[in-house]
Amino acid sequence: MQQTAADDKIYLVMGGSEIHYYISLGWALQNVPLHKTVVLVYIFRPAFDIAMLSRVVQPSDNFLINAYRRGRREHVLTSSELHVRAEKLIVENDDVAAGLLDLIVQHQVTTLILSSMIDRIYGSEGKILEKLEKQAHPSCSIFYLHNGNLISTRQEHDNVYAVETYDLPSFGSSQCLSGSSNNTGDTLSSFFRDSCSTGSGFDVSLLDNLSLENTTSILHDTRFSVVFDHESLNTFKGETASHLNVVGQSQEFHQAFHAKCVEMGIESVFRLDCKKFQKKQWMLIYRWHHVLLFTIRVLDAILTESKQNNISEAVKEPIRLLLNLASKIAKVMKSPEKLFCILNMHRALFDATPILTRVFDAEFVKIEVGGVVAALNESARGMLLELKILVQTYRPQQELTQGSVLTITEFLVKYIKLLVNHTGNLDPILCQGQADDLLNIEGVNLTGRLVSGIIADLESVVQESSSYVSEGLKFLFLVNNTDFVLRQVEESDVRLMVGAHWIKKRHNNIKQYMRDYLSSSWKQVVRPLETATTSSQKRLKNSFLKIFYPTPSPLRSFESALNKACKSQMHWKVCSPVLRVELRTNVIEYVVQAYQAYRDSLEESVRGDLEDLEPNVKSKLSDLFEG
């Protein structure tokens, strides 16, 4: 088999119950690129029982084994129906790890995906994953599908840990927030690179993550009031179990705790390698503040239940790992949308300080935790300065043919709303260090000054961008962008930051832009009619001139100009439905009024011989601004 052909195939190991099959299949149907072929790998162990229909079936029951094979064909048919290229491959081997290693060699597999629960499914106590990590050919990129995440842990790679979150149809979802960098890293498989999104620096979808908006503490969330047992506390290295003496332990509580660990990705964050941050790893970093507070909750329970004021160094290790990770995160270059990850980390450390003081001595909290907080503060200010530079140097990447809202406008408005949600975190950060360049406009507080400055920079960008288009489209463009910002401000707490005067001024600006649009786009259209309805002395002069310089009739000139204007504005768009109706009404009134004035100026006998163009005019103008 040629290597290029092998690269075009993604090998997805299907294992466990039927629900596991369909979770894996659902992920593949959602995420495998159309130009790739997904090979569904089923592991059949002849020497072991096959569970089916609530009874144990021995391998000698050939008719049921055949049914097993037929059921797997249904998965291929399902893939085909959804236009995903799929093949089926059954590996027959009592030793699952050996079977997969042979598969990699025989088929020159370059991308292998399997469930992170595979050891539990086959009761191998970690041997499958360990063997694959150590013995699989280095050319094969191995990923584990865990709770909708792709995880890579091959030690041969520089990128020891990478993750991407996808939506799993019908089985719950988690939102994906891509980083702004286009570099996905050479260590990822070709499939992994193809699956990555590479949004621009001002892609508003980068801010569509609910964790960015979470500014409230989860420290006292009752969902975390569960019983901890030794097995569940493997996430915390297991040493904490000896400190727990909690009554009423039950399997349900144990399962609830374990499920919460999986949901939050706690173990993944603890294992995160900091040597080389890439955009896939940020999916884990966004969970840092949840993991810290969850860990603090566990330690608080340990202290309370054991009635001791100190605990072993091993139990403190998760906190040290998290602080070390936060310190490294603060030092790396980050794109602006990751500011909210930093702010959530800052808030989490603030909320955790009282319990940290109980767990560690005050000197440790002052030096270690204080050092991390200072680094996060510096990082946040640096990211805001970087944002300011990016905004001030922004140029539209596409021609503004419709006059609609700029990408940067949508991004910054969402960004500003998130900033206001984090006022409690931002004000202390902005009052320290060098932040004067961010606070050059007056405001109700430091965050208000920051927000006002960003809005002022955005308005400068919009004004400059408007100079790149024609006169009429320019004012429509200004209407769209100013109205979008104004509506979003009025509907959020940002209005408290900018004040009533700012809001009133923008309302007036929109009205002026609409008047300027009418004048620049439609005055030339009605001019032939207005000229024909001037004073009798001027009409006599114009009639005399026509003897020597014949011109079309006013109505013919008007119709020609109207058709030309409507055609040129066919793709122009007003984004707000309310403004669209208002502006369209203004245009119709402006043009129809000039037409009616012209008809009224004609002799009654002449007027009766003319076709009434008003219905046709209104019909043409009613199609404007739809884009």
Automatic annotation (TrEMBL):
Q: Mind listing the GO molecular function terms for this protein?
A: phosphatidylinositol-4,5-bisphosphate binding
UniProt KW Oxidoreductase keyword: no
- What are the UniProt keywords, alphabetically? Exocytosis, Protein transport, Transport
User: Which Gene3D superfamilies does the annotation name?
Assistant: Exocyst complex component Exo70
Pfam families xref list: Exo70_C (PF03081)
Exocyst complex subunit Exo70 C-terminal domain residues are 305-606
Q: Which InterPro entries match?
A: Cullin_repeat-like_dom_sf, Exo70, Exo70_C
UniProt key word Protease: no
Q: Which residues cross the membrane?
A: none
Q: Which GO terms describe its cellular component?
A: exocyst
Q: Which GO terms describe its biological process?
A: exocytosis; protein transport
Function, in words: Component of the exocyst complex.
Family in the record: Belongs to the EXO70 family.
Q: What is this protein called?
A: Exocyst subunit Exo70 family protein
- Which species is this record about? Panicum hallii var. hallii
Q: What is the lineage of its organism?
A: Eukaryota, Viridiplantae, Streptophyta, Embryophyta, Tracheophyta
